[in-house]
């Protein structure tokens, strides 16, 4: 009888002992993983195995993160990892947070994030289009002296000059004295690059050479695109990735029309997706870059305030457009008779630029209405004039929208609403001075993100674009690596 009862109680004792043991173990484990704000750091340090323990605690202050040292016997690995970490940390106030070696460093938005290999295409693809001629075998102009670099033509061409600024920035990235520090640096070995840049000035090629000259069967623009496709298909870099890690600038909506079907796997830098089928270009894969504004930037101190801007709303542009642009005409008839509204025909090229600049700097709101493409240069002219943009373009994609909240400095109006009688003016007239001023202040803060310049400066359009590219790279790499999974598997042998 007593013998029988002994077994269960011993069993119970055993179970209790084991549970106690597990409880102690699990609480130790919990301590290690719980929020540091609940446990003094000194206690954490007592409990944790030093330095070789690898853990990450969300919300931990960055400068307190303890990271395992990289294996020193694999230098290649170390430098690659360091670089990737580099790619991901931008600025402490940005929402992205990644664990990386750089976490301990003070964040700086202009640290090198990206290694770029640039093909040495012959000058006829880039600076040759600007009339530049180097000496025999010279591919690139010297860019040490910013005053002596080949000039980009002014006028309307300038809107789509993205390609030119990016190329100059890369060329100068190895020259210590020009525009340091660089977000992107050029590397000579494509195996060490995060992205491969294709230095074709496609917008300039379209703007200047798409007409057939006498005796020509194909335009220079088409010929260059054909040759570019041929060149790229023959490169080991393209073959390696199927072009997915290539960066191609096609900012003018009509540039690259001939080649784009074959080059659509690349990351494209575009003005909008208006004329692209979604499988060729989309916001996941590609980058929307701002137009180079045509009006001059208003210095902050000279920017007119609410009272000083006598015009309520300003629009100047071509009124009759094909495709989505019909709304311009309808708005014109709705607004043309209002006294504090400027709504006028005509492109702002040539002399119109000064006039438009004056008009925008003295207006509270500037309209951006969909034209024949969803985007237009007008938005960027409005921004640098500190004229609060009113965006009436349902399909528009905006540059840098992952880091900029446009609603902080713009109004968005659905096309269907804008066409309701009185809707637009009611909205603008009922926007209070305080609210407007907040948007105006924000405009002044973000204007520099829309400046293209050489040498580039921290946070300007050139650097913002490189940062966007850096954010695309991890997903490009993920897809490439996934595709590689079975590359060593023997090919299937057909049974009989
Ligand atoms: C952890 O180890 C490092 C050297 O590896 C030492 O400098 C540091 O003081 C140690 N920290 C603790 C809490 O023991
Ligand atoms: C980080 O970004 C914010 C806004 O985007 C900016 O105000 C701040 O100056 C930046 N900080 C650094 C260190 O670049
Ligand atoms: C230009 O390049 C070709 C081929 O690489 C070479 O044979 C020639 O000597 C070079 N000319 C000059 C002036 O460097
Ligand atoms: C380029 O880099 C790869 C990997 O880092 C290396 O194996 C190769 O030898 C390098 N090529 C040249 C020409 O330096």
UniProtKB/TrEMBL annotation:
<protein>
    <recommendedName>
        <fullName>Exostosin GT47 domain-containing protein</fullName>
    </recommendedName>
</protein>
<keyword id="KW-0735">Signal-anchor</keyword>
<feature type="domain" description="Exostosin GT47">
    <location>
        <begin position="114"/>
        <end position="426"/>
    </location>
</feature>
<dbReference type="InterPro" id="IPR004263">
    <property type="entry name" value="Exostosin"/>
</dbReference>
<dbReference type="InterPro" id="IPR040911">
    <property type="entry name" value="Exostosin_GT47"/>
</dbReference>
<keyword id="KW-1133">Transmembrane helix</keyword>
<keyword id="KW-0333">Golgi apparatus</keyword>
<keyword id="KW-0328">Glycosyltransferase</keyword>
<keyword id="KW-0808">Transferase</keyword>
<dbReference type="GO" id="GO:0016757">
    <property type="term" value="F:glycosyltransferase activity"/>
</dbReference>
<keyword id="KW-0812">Transmembrane</keyword>
<comment type="similarity">
    <text>Belongs to the glycosyltransferase 47 family.</text>
</comment>
<dbReference type="GO" id="GO:0000139">
    <property type="term" value="C:Golgi membrane"/>
</dbReference>
<dbReference type="Pfam" id="PF03016">
    <property type="entry name" value="Exostosin_GT47"/>
</dbReference>
<feature type="transmembrane region" description="Helical">
    <location>
        <begin position="12"/>
        <end position="32"/>
    </location>
</feature>
<keyword id="KW-0472">Membrane</keyword>
């Amino acid at each position: 009888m007593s013998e029988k009862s002994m077994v269960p109680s011993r069993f119970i004792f055993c179970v209790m002992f084991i549970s106690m043991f597990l409880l102690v173990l699990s609480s130790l484990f919990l301590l290690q993983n719980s929020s540091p704000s609940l446990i003094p750091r000194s206690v954490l340090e007592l409990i944790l195995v030093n330095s070789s323990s690898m853990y990450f605690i969300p919300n931990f202050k960055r400068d307190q993160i303890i990271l395992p040292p990289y294996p020193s016997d694999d230098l290649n690995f170390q430098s690659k990892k360091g670089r990737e970490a580099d790619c991901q940390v931008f600025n402490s106030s940005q929402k992205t947070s990644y664990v990386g070696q750089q976490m301990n460093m003070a964040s700086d938005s202009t640290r090198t994030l990206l290694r770029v290999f640039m093909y040495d295409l012959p000058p006829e693809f880039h600076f040759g289009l600007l009339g530049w001629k180097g000496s025999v075998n010279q591919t690139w102009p010297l860019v040490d002296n910013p005053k002596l670099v080949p000039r980009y033509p002014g006028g309307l061409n300038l809107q789509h000059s993205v390609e030119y600024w990016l190329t100059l920035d890369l060329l100068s990235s190895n020259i210590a004295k020009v525009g340091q520090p660089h977000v992107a640096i050029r590397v000579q070995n494509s195996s060490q690059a995060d992205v491969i840049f294709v230095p074709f000035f496609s917008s300039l090629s379209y703007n200047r050479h798409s007409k057939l000259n006498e005796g020509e069967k194909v335009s220079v623009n088409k010929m260059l695109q054909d040759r570019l496709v041929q060149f790229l298909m023959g490169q080991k870099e393209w073959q390696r990735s199927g072009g997915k890690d290539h960066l191609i600038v096609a900012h003018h909506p009509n540039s690259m029309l001939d080649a784009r079907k074959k080059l659509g796997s690349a990351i494209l830098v575009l003005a909008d997706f208006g004329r692209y089928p979604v499988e060729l270009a989309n916001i996941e894969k590609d980058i929307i870059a701002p137009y180079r504004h045509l009006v001059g930037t208003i210095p902050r101190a000279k920017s007119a305030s609410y009272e000083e801007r006598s015009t309520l709303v300003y629009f100047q542009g071509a009124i009759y457009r094909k495709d989505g642009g019909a709304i311009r005409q309808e708005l014109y008839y709705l607004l043309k008779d209002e006294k504090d509204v400027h709504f006028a025909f005509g492109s702002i090229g040539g002399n119109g630029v000064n006039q438009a600049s004056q008009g925008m700097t003295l207006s509270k709101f500037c309209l951006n209405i969909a034209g024949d493409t969803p985007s237009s240069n007008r938005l960027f002219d409005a921004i640098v004039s500190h004229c609060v943009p009113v965006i009436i373009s349902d399909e528009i994609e905006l540059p840098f929208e992952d880091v900029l909240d446009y609603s902080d400095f713009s109004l968005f109006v659905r096309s269907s609403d804008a066409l309701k009688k009185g809707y637009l003016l009611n909205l603008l007239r009922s926007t209070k001075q305080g609210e407007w001023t907040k948007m105006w202040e924000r405009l002044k803060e973000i204007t520099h993100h829309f400046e293209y310049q050489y040498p580039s400066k921290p946070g300007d359009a050139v650097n913002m674009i490189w940062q966007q590219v850096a954010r695309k790279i991890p997903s490009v790499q993920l897809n490439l690596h996934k595709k590689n999974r079975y590359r060593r598997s023997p090919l299937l042998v057909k049974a009989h």
